[in-house]
Write a structure and sequence with these properties.
The protein is an alpha+beta fold. Helices cover 43% and strands 45% of the residues.
């Protein structure tokens, strides 16, 4: 009887440890996803506000920024386009967003809904978007973006 009680106790202890470990991993994953989601929000907020410092801080030097038209920009071209380009955003909302994390890389997919003006004329944007973030000194930074027509 004593052996049965010891075996049952060990079994319950192992199950408890396994459940705790699974919960910790899930919490860690949720925290990473929340940080990536926050970074997406910060980038889009900076695009609307034309905040050069934030845009430069949240993007990597090797940024490859692809538009739905097929145009590809590097970091300086992207930042300049946001600040001085023909399209000026008044709002950007990511819809149906999913985030997948693989070690120090995050893959974000969503529908990019935006409003603003294009050369002074009111305009709306509704495109698909893929963002790739890489961890850099503990922070998520945009490495690549590719938009596509829906």
């Amino acid at each position: 009887m004593r052996k049965i009680l010891i075996c049952m106790s060990l079994y319950l202890l192992l199950v408890s440890v396994a459940c705790s470990s699974t919960n910790l991993m899930a919490q860690n994953s949720n925290n990473k996803i929340a940080k990536v989601e926050s970074t997406v929000t910060k980038i889009y907020t900076a695009m609307v506000a034309k905040n050069k410092d934030v845009l430069e801080d949240l993007t990597l030097e090797k940024l490859s920024y692809g538009h739905s038209s097929g145009k590809i920009e590097n970091k300086s071209e992207y930042v300049d386009g946001v600040l001085n380009g023909a399209f000026q955003f008044s709002s950007i909302i990511p819809v149906d967003q999913t985030i997948t994390i693989a070690e120090d890389v995050a893959i974000v997919r969503h529908i990019f809904k935006g409003e603003g003006t294009n050369n002074g004329t009111p305009a709306k944007v509704n495109i698909g978007c893929l963002l790739i973030f890489q961890k850099d000194n503990g922070d998520w930074k945009l490495l690549a973006r590719q938009a596509f027509k829906l």
